[in-house]
Amino acid sequence: MRLSPQDRALATEFVALTFPKERFRHAEHVRLAWVLLAEHPLLDAMQAFRSQLQAFAAHHGAHGLYNETVTCFYLLLIRERMDALPGSHGWVEFREANPDLLGPPKAFLERWYPGGSAFSPEAKAAFHPPVRAA
Q1: How far apart are the first and last CA of the chain?
Q2: Distance CA 78, CA 30 (A)
Q3: Tens digit of pLDDT for each residue in 5-53?
Q4: Distance (Å, rounded) from C-alpha 101 to C-alpha 91?
Q5: Which residue stretches of the chain are H helix?
Q6: How many CA atoms lie within 13 A of 7 on its CB side?
Q7: Residue 25 — left, alpha, or beta (φ > 0 → left; ψ -120 to 50 → alpha)?
Q8: CA–CA separation, 24 and 21 (whole Å)
Q9: SS (H, E, C) 49-81
């Protein structure tokens, strides 16, 4: 994968807790996951993303927002989609090839987790595999 200076800046600012909370929307979640997956093996990226999201939320007083199922599911799906592209792709190519990943997450997740099951207290606390494939 080809990381740009903007990709590296996002990762650096996020870890340093200097990335603005109001700019950290769904697309930035996906991009940060992509950066971590480009730099680390899957399990290491999952662990890093999990701890970074929790630290960011705690820093901004957003306790209780972290969702283990959503985080793990997106990371697994992003990794799968990355593997389907040439190894030399960058964020722009990934984003253009996967616009569905950047749409509203609740509607997107409904395909695998019907009835909002990805947002149950149990799913927030521990990874739950998808109920069905899309």
Answers
A1: 27
A2: 8
A3: 999 999 999 999 999 999 999 999 999 999 999 999 999 999 999 999 9
A4: 13
A5: 5-15, 26-39, 42-59, 68-83, 91-97, 105-109, 121-125
A6: 19
A7: beta
A8: 5
A9: HHHHHHHHHHHCCCCCCCCHHHHHHHHHHHHHH
One-letter amino acid of 79: R
Token pair recorded at residue 133: 């494939």
What does the block give as tokens for 12?
A: 């650096």
Residue with tokens 């409904």: 110
Distance, CA of 41 to CA of 46 (rounded, Å):
9
Cβ neighbours for 84, distance < 8 A, ≥ 6 positions apart? 97
| The residue to which tokens 């991009």 are assigned | 31
Give 2's strand partners: 90
Question: What's the predicted TM-score (pTM) here?
Answer: 0.94
